[in-house]
Amino acid sequence: MNFHQRNNIYGELTHHEFLEHCCRPYGYGRLPTEMLTAVQNGDLEKTRRYLDTDRDVNATYEEETLLSRACSVGQVEIVILILQCPDVHLNIYFEGYTPLERAAFSGHIECARRILQASVKCRPELNNGWPIITEILKEEYNLSQRSAIHILNWATYETQWEAAKLILDSEYHIPKRSLYLMTMQALHLNRWDILQRVFGRKFHGKQDLLAEALAITVSMRRWERIREILSMMGTGMDLEIPLVEAALDGDKQEVERLLSAHDYDEKTLNGCLLVISAGGTSESVARRMLNINNVYSHRTLSDALFLTMRGQQTEFFLLLLSKPEAAYSLRDLSRAKRILEEQMKQGECFLFETLSHYLDRFIEEKFPENV
User: Fold this and answer.
1) Which domains does the chain show, CATH number per domain?
2) Residue 62 three-state SS
3) Which pLDDT band holds residue 237 (cuts at 50, 70, 90)?
4) 36, 164, 202, 355: which could form a disulfide with 155 (CB 3.0–4.6 Å)?
């Protein structure tokens, strides 16, 4: 993964909707000091009367809020009361810490859990306090779907893998976007335990995400990891490294020599085609590999079509498209079309309009009844 790819991943993580915290108010009301004392002493009724008179729940005294004091001293009932105010802000810092962090560092696990579970507009920042958050997850508290995914996305951003694994091992529905960002982060940091958990789940678009992971791993030439991803893809493919390296380097002469010297089986040839579809090769090598007839499975050709479009390998893509025995389904072609459309939106694909028209005509000819 190159520098620009890593920056792109962190950019997506930082601006991902689940990482957006509440906008803090520009100015806070002034909090009477006796209210901090009331919270300190656990005076629930006095706190209730204060909030019932439309007082500012985010009011501060020297930057300390009611919620911050309640979390610091572990007044759970008062925390529950404050969190019933829909406009409460969860990320007002006092002495450098949010209320959640103060609860976590003070060991008040129930206060922390209540903030994580709160049904308010604001979402808590999760920069610190991960031991307590992980403990909450271990105790199998009944966190809401919203809270669990919020924690998962912050765990991905903060690389808090123990917390992330607890959610991945649960039955929460995890959005594809969250799984994508986690996959990119885990690939960058070589966390294969996380990748195994991600791809051990059933979710729509899993094959496409595996193909993305394969492309990134091929760019790093991590052969054992490439084998693992091929295994996760359920292809039953093998990997002959000298052949793959020569093909990725676009060395047609060496590819020809190896093909002549060895009687490679179908698993090896399928693995080679898929890897070079992910990593790229010269047109001459692509043509030579595709001239080997009746060895490539439909699944290999479908994934190769997807990967060459993803990698903007136009010549390779067109060679795959014209392979007579490929028998692509409408789903295969629609999958490639979707990638092309995404690249068109980003302005990334050279000659994408010509390629789009060509693909549209190809689909019309193959599936006129669906046009």
Assistant:
1) 1-16+132-204 (no CATH), 22-124 (1.25.40.20), 214-370 (1.25.40)
2) coil
3) confident
4) 164
